[in-house]
Design brief:
The complex is a heterodimer. By secondary structure, chain A is an alpha/beta fold. Chain A has a single domain (about 35-50, about 75-230), classed as P-loop containing nucleotide triphosphate hydrolases (Rossmann fold, 3-Layer(aba) Sandwich). Helices cover about 35% and strands about 25% of the residues of chain A. Chain A has six helices and ten strands, in the order E-E-E-H-E-E-H-E-H-H-H-E-H-E-E-E. In chain A, the strands form two sheets. In chain A, strands 6-7-8-3-9-10 form a six-stranded mixed sheet. In chain A, strands 2-1-4-5 form a four-stranded antiparallel sheet, covered by helices on one side. Chain A is globular and about 55 Å long. Chain B is of the alpha+beta class. Chain B has two domains: about 5-45 and about 255-375, no CATH class; about 60-235, no CATH class. A six-stranded mixed barrel of chain B has the order 3-4-9-6-8-7. Chain B has a two-stranded antiparallel sheet with strand order 2-10. The longest helix of chain B is centred in the last third of the chain and has 45 residues, at about 240-285. Chain B is elongated. The chains are: A alpha/beta, B alpha+beta. Chains A and B meet through helix 1, helix 2 and helix 3 of A and helix 1 and helix 8 of B.
Chain lengths: ~230, ~375
């Protein structure tokens, strides 16, 4: 029996501007990512990868088409910004190119921030943060500020933050760009492990050819349109 | 977890320096208010000190401070005999130069009748004047010492006591001598031509002149009624204590109040602009963190709270620093700086409002941040 996709886009279009300044950022994009899958999103600069990630992440509204997140249709006119914010908080974890940890919070606090924002009490949020940091092998760095962490450690902390609210979807924007190939590989292995153990759908935007073999599916995008799927 | 506090702790040096700068500015605001209060207090000190119920002055005059006033020395007897008057005393006021062994100082000379209303009190060192001639009680800010011999006009006086909080509007310390000495001093100070006429045996004009007569009324008697009677029957000018204080405040302090009030308002506006710019800059420094917070789902109230709380923390810490600094240095000002708790509370409230207003710029900027900017590409 085929599992229902966690991410589903049907004929999604997105344009910016109007008239001569109109730019077609996404053209008739349809894709689905099932639970437990790590999907790569490849394409040259300006091809629409980030726009697509923003649409999946419920940050920007598509001009047309259907976006379903964990079986729920979003951008159907009934969603307010607060609802989308809550959806992101509960169902989507974000991993950034340069980890984007808050510089004034320790590793534990950065990870505990997401559950705190979701309404968990401080003890539960901290316990969850400790559990995740241990799980990702950086438990011993819990009290360090981001500036004191190595690139690999900071990225693991960022992954822990992304997982803190047990999201079903993880969106990673070039998470290995700042890492050497060995660390990049281990981050992807970690994401694969997370996808498998948490039944999550992971979408990774990347240029890094060294990690292509670690994706279950690869979507190629050019000029806003999907041109291939492996 | 309080993000504002964590951010402050992370950038503690910058926060402290900002608070010091802001504190100095708010300290100046508080000092301006304190200087105004001090001026009012000093201007009223000589009017309040005798504890009079009413003031009798020359008809048509608003003296003795705001206008010249000359009354015959017999006026006190006439007032003391009036119905409802318990006691009365004559006083003279004049500015003068006091010569010490080293240098000289400007003083405000008050002549009074020992044992009657108008005596300086409290005596904080030494004693009151007990001899009818050539003794002097000085305000402590004059720097005079008990037993010191000083010159007023051609007469030498001995400082026998010190009092406090008795200064003229101009800030000159008051010195108290007997009415007789004061009248003699006034006679001495007449123009040389008058003195020459006196030496030639030409009768001098009456020197038994006072500037005001102060009176207390019996308990239950109406000072306003006595004032009305004095105006009607004695043809003197008269006013109750409250009128004298209002007159002094209005005539002497009003322009200063407006001047200082305007300057204080300008300083508050400058403070608001500075706080707004600081908050705006702090927000600019955190745009990426704010975008990240929004992206991961932080509600707007968390972002607004981060900015407003930092702004308030900065304002309140700055105010506390400024107020503490002023408490430490206020006694070193050449004029009295009077810090009233209600003024401090009022400024604290203004600072809170100013911080909230100043946050608007930062909050608007933060709320406009696109969460997508947290993602690359």
């Amino acid at each position: 029996m085929e599992t229902a996709p966690l991410i589903e886009l049907r004929s999604v279009f997105k344009h910016f501007g109007a008239g001569d300044a109109r730019v077609e950022a996404l053209v008739d994009v349809s894709l689905a990512v099932a639970p437990g899958t790590v999907a790569g999103l490849l394409g040259p600069s300006g091809s629409g990868k980030s726009t697509l990630l923003n649409v999946i992440g419920c940050i920007i509204e598509p001009s047309a088409g259907v976006v379903r997140i964990d079986g729920v249709t979003v951008w159907d006119g009934r969603w307010r910004s607060g609802d989308l914010r809550r959806l992101r908080l509960d169902k989507i974890g974000f991993i950034f190119q340069s980890h984007n940890l808050l510089p004034f919070l320790t590793a534990i606090e950065n990870v505990a921030l997401a559950p705190s924002l979701a309404g968990r009490n401080a003890e539960a949020a901290t316990a969850r943060a400790r559990e995740l940091l241990d799980y990702l092998g950086v438990g011993h760095r819990g009290h360090a500020l981001p500036a004191k962490l190595s690139g690999g450690e900071a990225q693991r902390v960022a992954i822990a933050r992304a997982l803190a609210n047990r999201p079903r979807i993880i969106l990673a924007d070039e998470p290995t760009a700042a890492l050497d190939s060995q660390r990049a590989g281990s981050v992807l292995d970690l994401l694969r492990k997370v996808a498998r153990e948490h039944e999550a759908a992971v979408v990774v935007v990347t240029h890094d050819e060294n990690i292509f073999d670690r994706f279950d599916t690869i979507f190629q995008i050019r000029d806003g349109a999907l041109i291939g799927k492996n | 977890m309080n993000l504002a506090l964590r951010d402050i702790r992370h950038n503690l040096g910058r926060f402290v320096l900002t608070c010091i700068g802001l504190g100095l500015l708010l300290g100046v605001v508080l000092a301006m208010v304190g200087i105004y209060r001090g001026l009012v207090s000093e201007a009223l000190s000589l009017a309040i000190a005798p504890g009079a119920d009413l003031w009798v002055v020359e008809e048509g005059s608003q003296g003795p401070f705001a206008d010249p006033s000359r009354l015959p020395g017999t006026a006190r007897e006439a007032i003391a005999r009036m119905a409802g008057v318990e006691r009365a005393g004559s006083l003279t006021y004049r500015a003068g130069e006091m010569v010490r062994d080293v240098g000289s100082i400007r003083v405000f000379v008050v002549g009074y009748e020992p044992g009657r209303i108008g005596e300086p009190h409290p005596i904080i060192a030494g004693r009151s004047i007990s001899r009818s001639r050539h003794e002097l009680v000085a305000n402590v800010t004059s720097g005079l010492e008990i037993g010191e011999r000083v010159g007023l006009g051609r007469t030498r006086f001995t400082v026998v006591g010190l009092t406090h909080n008795k200064v003229a509007f101009g800030g000159d310390p008051a010195v108290f001598i007997t009415l007789r000495d004061s009248q003699e001093l006034q006679f001495e100070s007449r123009p040389a031509s008058a003195r020459r006429q006196a030496a030639q045996g030409i009768p001098a004009p009456n020197s038994d002149i006072v500037n005001t007569v102060l009176a207390n009324v019996f308990p239950g008697a109406s000072a306003a009624q006595v004032v009305a009677d004095i105006r009607r029957w004695k043809h003197f000018g008269a006013m109750v204590q409250a009128e004298q204080e209002a007159l002094l405040t209005h005539a002497v302090v009003e322009k200063v109040r407006k001047q200082i009030g305007l300057f204080t308002t300008l300083l508050v506006i400058v403070s608001t602009v500075i706080i707004a710019l600081i908050v705006h800059t702090l927000t600019l420094d955190k745009l990426r963190e704010i975008a990240t917070l929004k992206l991961i789902g932080a509600p707007d109230r968390v972002i607004v709270g981060l900015i407003v709380q930092q702004s308030l923390a900065m304002g309140i810490t700055g105010f506390a620093f400024g107020a503490s600094l002023l408490v430490l240095v206020k006694d070193h000002f050449p004029r009295r700086v009077l810090m009233m708790p209600e003024d401090a509370m009022m400024l604290a409230a203004v600072v809170v409002v100013v911080c909230l207003l100043a946050s608007i710029l930062g909050v608007r900027l933060a709320l406009k941040v696109d969460p997508a900017t947290a993602l690359g590409g």
